[in-house]
Predict the 3D structure of the following.
Amino acid sequence: MIPSIPRPRLLDIAYTGYVVLFFVFLALPLVVVAVFAFNDSQFPSLPWEGFTWNWFFGAERPMIGVFHERPILRAIGTSAFVAVFVSILSVGVGLSNAFLFNRYRFPGQGLLYVLMLLPLVIPGIVLGISILVFSSRLANGAWEMAEWDIAALRPGLVLVILGQFSFIATIATLVIGARLQKFDRSLEEAALNLGAGRLTAVRTVTLPYLMPAMIGAFVVAFLMSFENFNTTLMLVGSDAPLTIAMFDRLKEGSTPLLNAVSLLLMIGSSCLALVMIAFQRRP
Amino acid sequence: MRTQARLGLFLLLTPLVLWLSLLIFIPHVDMFLVSLRERVGVGEYRLSLANYLTFINEPLYLRTFLRTAVMSVIATVITLMIAFPVSYYIAKIARGRTRSALFLLCLVPFWVSELVRTFGWMILLRETGLISNLLQFVGLTDAPVEMLYNDAAIMVGLVYTSMLFMVVPLVTTLESLPDEVIEAGYDLGGSGVAVMREIVIPHAMPGIVSGSIIVFMLSLGNYLTPTMLGGKDSLWFTELIYSQFIVRFNWELGAAFGFLLLGLSSAIVWGMLKLTGQSLEKSMG
């Protein structure tokens, strides 16, 4: 069944109809969330009570908009803070890993590569609890041995960052490694012939070539961190990132405020995605 | 030069080894050790299989475990069934701009947090939701229908959430199949079904395998969708882990549960790779 092979017209129409239905299915929940952000009612459901901007800019009860809701704004800040750290760490380690697997041959390399992929097939919640268990053991050990209270090892932002990093680093490695594999080594050798040192050659030739992949990895890491739920849920302390804060509210019952936050999230991530695509287009 | 290369190797190896040992390997070994201990007094533990025995002897735990596994398999199969024709359409039927536009459209839900997607389904499916209202409007029912809080709702949520992870690998592998090969299949007298079975599906196997592995794993480890869309009777295994760790503070049992979940997911991933002769490097990288 490809265009060059004739096929019954009816089948053709049915097939196209199926694909259209599929995209309706994909779009429906997102469209619904976005539309109800403008409903002038306490609940994100029918009946439609009229259009309002209040869930974004409202300053008075009972309709406090996103931009006046302190806890939500703080949660967005926390998420962004975590995401920036996770992205920097992941891109750094991913870059180092990409060079390691591309440029060196050493015993045990194949095994190490498989180990590096494993975080992708470990359920996020298991990653979270294993790090929680291990860090509490370390913290308790430090307390018993020297009465040190290491706050960083208790549930909180440091653990959230480490937990998310533990699997996002794999993705960054794969993204950067894929581009490094396409790199033409003779360009680096040319730089060496022209008198550059090894580090200079890498810095001035290889790294600029890898830049689109590094930016791509950074954006993907940022979004994955911002949206992560499972691992974060197990490691979170008193400062809740946005997904956790929204989850807590959703359990209590939802107002269109959550729709407004969601719409902002959609706009934000679409913009980031567009930035990334723009950078990937460059040869 | 040699010492320099060694130094470079050492420097690049350090972050990788630190990451894999401190955040992946040692924590999992530690979790396993915790799952093997039994509390006998204040701060006193002994080695035992008590937590695993509790799991086997308590029908609720065992049933939830099996239910989660079976439902994840069903979700994976449904996702594959829905995604395959769409991926084939994008890869082989759509052309040029339409193709890239459709592919990008498939990626859109992925850029939005899972929480938002689940929230969307809640608005659609709940008693006062859109679908219930639509059914009343059309006249199929005269009272509001509650479609949330049951297994079907969980299934919809799981399939929706993991759709992208099936579509992307499928489109990538199907795109690499030249049209001429399909035409040759027809020229040699194969019917549409035969060409599909003998040429397209074998070629798409790596994509099917890696898509299925990821979807299965994501469904098994999902917490949000079953919690928000499921009802009182549709417990998910991750909810048990969460309640042992955070609500009951019984870390020993929770660690055992975590290890069982990890074991199940690894066993199925390994089994699928073996069954289809693929390797983890090929499927993921």
